[in-house]
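Take a look at the protein record below and tell me what you see:
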Amino acid sequence: MPDQDQADVRLVLARLRQEHEDYDAAINAMIQTNCEALRIQRMKKKKLGIKDKMTQIEDQIIPDIIA
């Protein structure tokens, strides 16, 4: 992967990590304020989707090493 492409992918990954942390903080705040369980569940589902995207991008950056 060319250096510029890899830098772009790393930037996207950093943004996703920040968004994942933001969702985590929002979910914790919702739990503390006794928000509706359905809203919390939806936020957790979105957070999980972000985690899946992060995993896919990390797999692109880190090549598989055959031992």
User: Anything to note?
Assistant: DSSP finds two helices and no strands in the chain. The mean pLDDT is 91. The radius of gyration is 16 Å. Residues 9 and 57 are 7 Å apart (CA to CA).
